[in-house]
Write a structure and sequence with these properties.
Layout lengths: L14 E7 L5 H16 L10 E7 L5 E5 L7 H9 L10 H12 L12 E7 L8 H9 L2 E8 L7 H8 L5 E4 L10 H12 L12 E6 L2 E6 L3 E3 L4 E3 L11 E4 L9 E6 L3 E4 L3 E3 L12 E4 L3
Parallel strand pairs: 1-2, 1-4, 4-5, 5-6
Antiparallel strand pairs: 2-3, 7-8, 9-10, 11-12, 12-14, 13-15
Helix pairs in contact: 1-6, 3-4, 4-5
């Protein structure tokens, strides 16, 4: 059954910045469609200071790279969508490389809301070939640990596939739409926002051991063995405590238990008193909860 994207939200908080081409090639109607596209993507994310934070940058001419929304501004959905609806259309030329530089030098800074323990995503939205070089600026952005997606409207003669892939760094993160209407239909925004969410869930295909959990450590994911297991996350073995033997003049049951959380019980033979704990538990640190008891002869 096809998933209803409008009934769910992406469960992974991210720092998400949109770099929106504001050049003449869009025309007014196309630019409005691009703004609607951004809003449709954001409808899939839970927004907030401790959830997904959003930034928006527009770019066009040489001196027209402008931060419209910082990651630490407009946390509520109403505030953010209002800002997006009110984005001005600058017109002018297309300098995507300068836009990428602006994002790197401004948007993804901690002072402007970038978090240390959250994955970072940049969504570049354009419909025209850049008039400046994009390869170097895009590489610098990705070297910061930022995952880049490109949403391009147009045919190959409008904006080349090579340009798009040099920005994203991966053809799987390039989405080419051949018509502006695809920005606002019921299929393409859903497909793209789902792809962004999937990219933020690196644990899904992550090869952790069955007894390990994938966790976010800084801006990368790592496997950590679950409680009671030891290893590197890719190989996890259960914790074992030292072998116990029955005390003189006593018994231990069961006789073969020594894994994490296993319990054993001691009893003494008739005529002997148990000194110590009757039941011991194997702890997470590989030691028993107490020293083994002894069985002392009863005094007459």
């Amino acid at each position: 059954m096809e998933e209803d994207f409008n009934s769910v939200t992406c469960p992974y908080p991210v720092d998400l910045v949109f770099l929106l081409d504001s050049s003449e090639s869009w025309r007014t109607s196309g630019f409005e469609d691009a703004k609607t596209f951004i809003q449709n993507v954001l409808n899939y994310f839970t927004l907030g200071e401790n959830d997904t934070r959003v930034g928006v940058v527009t770019y066009s001419n040489l001196d027209a790279q402008i931060t419209r929304v910082k990651l630490n501004e407009n946390y509520t959905r109403v505030e953010l969508l209002t800002e997006i609806r009110n984005l001005p259309y600058d017109r002018g030329h297309t300098f995507t490389g300068l836009g990428l530089d602006h994002v790197r030098n401004n948007s993804f800074l901690e002072v402007n809301g970038r978090r240390k323990d959250t994955l970072d995503f940049l969504i570049v939205i354009t419909d025209d070939e850049s008039e400046d070089n994009v390869t170097g600026p895009a590489q610098l952005v990705r070297q910061m640990g930022i995952t880049v997606f490109v949403v391009a409207v147009g045919e190959e003669n409008d904006i080349s596939q090579a340009t798009l892939e040099s920005i994203a760094g991966d053809p799987d993160r390039v989405f080419r739409l051949t018509d502006y209407d695809f920005l606002v239909d019921g299929i393409h925004p859903d497909f793209i926002r789902k792809a962004i969410c999937n990219a933020s869930n690196l644990c899904d295909p992550f090869p952790c051991h069955a007894n390990a959990t994938c966790r976010l450590l800084g801006r990368t994911y790592t496997c950590s063995c679950n409680i009671g297991f030891v290893g590197n996350g890719f190989t996890c073995t259960v914790v074992h405590c030292p072998v116990l033997t029955a005390p003189a003049n006593g018994t231990i049951t069961p006789t073969n238990r020594r894994q994490y959380q296993d319990q054993v019980t001691f009893t003494c033979n008739s005529g002997y008193n148990l000194v110590g704990q009757t039941m011991l538990t194997c702890l997470v640190n590989g030691s028993w909860s107490a020293s083994p008891p002894t069985c002392n002869h009863c005094a007459n």
